[in-house]
Write a structure and sequence with these properties.
9 strands, alpha+beta, two-stranded antiparallel ribbon, globular, 10 helices
Length: 331
């Protein structure tokens, strides 16, 4: 594997096309770079056939076993007739190697972001997530990590501090704020009690849900991991507490058609949102040597970014202290 801090420096268009053709396919020379930062994703033209999507995995991020576990999970969901896009097999394999890179191919799935203003759309997504979680709860990942405070919160904070990412003028304020945020996260988990950890999509934001003529499709299971079911639900919510309460009612109305929901997990919504905020800042810092990141996120690592980041955490401390987002189903 490459050890360069610019891990995709050698992934030229010719290398991408040669990698695809190494599987016995004939490309037509058309190559479209798709929006992705953690990995590199391309739409590749195939001679006399529909284009395919090629994902080249970031070196060193996942082990082969962890990637294959993601592939197996998406195929398991597809076997249950869920609208996901599993990797294609060539020579009986879904993970392929070319030069320093590992890659997988999938069918192209078009679509647009779902319109969550409609209750029927929210309920539809809830039903599908209930079905995904019913499958995800059958067994556990053994190669992929668990979503928890230690990994997303403490490790992220420690990385930022060890690498002196924050301006010195804001360091003390950040330390006090993130420390209080972590205390509140622990309190949320304590109120939730024992929570079942299941296999999740893990990153179920609207960019990973494509709405086509036949309804929604879930794509990009790259962040699949063990975690509480609510992780795949809370990112569908937006607005003030009352708006999110109504939205969650609709999502759970569909969800519970297929999977029982532990209502105590509502205690974790703001905790998980806070962990995502902390982890996101550390993710950008970890990737800053990749030239794609300064170009795509020029506002990161400025004093204004860190000032806004601290304000976000302070708002989350207030939100976590306010208690769970109870819905009518739990009143």
């Amino acid at each position: 594997m490459t050890t360069s801090v610019t891990p995709y420096a050698n992934l030229t268009p010719d290398v991408v096309l040669d990698a695809i053709e190494s599987l016995g396919l004939i490309t037509d020379g058309h190559l479209l770079t798709l929006n992705s930062y953690e990995n590199r994703v391309y739409q590749v033209g195939i001679d006399e056939a529909a284009p395919l999507i090629a994902k080249f995995y970031r070196p060193h991020r996942w082990s082969d076993a962890a990637i294959l576990e993601e592939h197996q999970f998406s195929q398991e969901l597809a076997n249950h007739e869920l609208p996901v896009v599993p990797p294609l097999r060539f020579g009986g394999q879904t993970l392929h190697y070319f030069n320093d890179y590992r890659f997988a191919l999938t069918l192209r799935q078009g679509g647009r972001a779902p319109n969550l203003e409609h209750a029927a759309v929210r309920e539809w997504l809830g039903r599908l997530l209930g079905r995904i979680h019913a499958v995800g709860a059958v067994t556990a990942f053994t190669q992929r990590p668990t979503l928890n405070c230690a990994h997303f919160g403490i490790e992220s904070r420690d990385f930022l501090l060890a690498n002196q990412c924050l301006p010195s003028a804001l360091l003390s304020t950040y330390l006090n704020t993130v420390s209080e945020a972590l205390v509140q996260i622990d309190a949320c988990y304590e109120r939730a009690g024992t929570v079942k950890l299941i296999r999740l999509h893990g990153d179920c934001h609207l960019g990973n849900v494509l709405w086509a003529d036949d309804g929604p499709h879930f794509v990009d299971f790259d962040d699949a991991r063990q975690g509480p079911a609510i992780q795949d639900l809370w990112m569908l919510l937006a607005g003030d507490r009352e708006e999110m309460r109504q939205q969650l009612d609709d999502v759970l109305a569909g969800y519970e058609d297929f999977c029982e929901f532990n209502w105590r997990e509502l205690q974790l919504i703001e905790a998980l949102r806070t962990l995502r905020i902390i982890h996101y800042a550390a993710w950008l810092a970890r990737r800053w040597d990749d030239p794609a990141f300064p170009a795509a996120f020029p506002w990161f690592n400025t004093a204004q970014f860190w000032h806004d980041h601290i304000l976000q955490l302070q708002e989350q401390i207030t939100a976590m202290a306010a208690g769970a987002l109870w819905t009518t189903g739990n009143d």
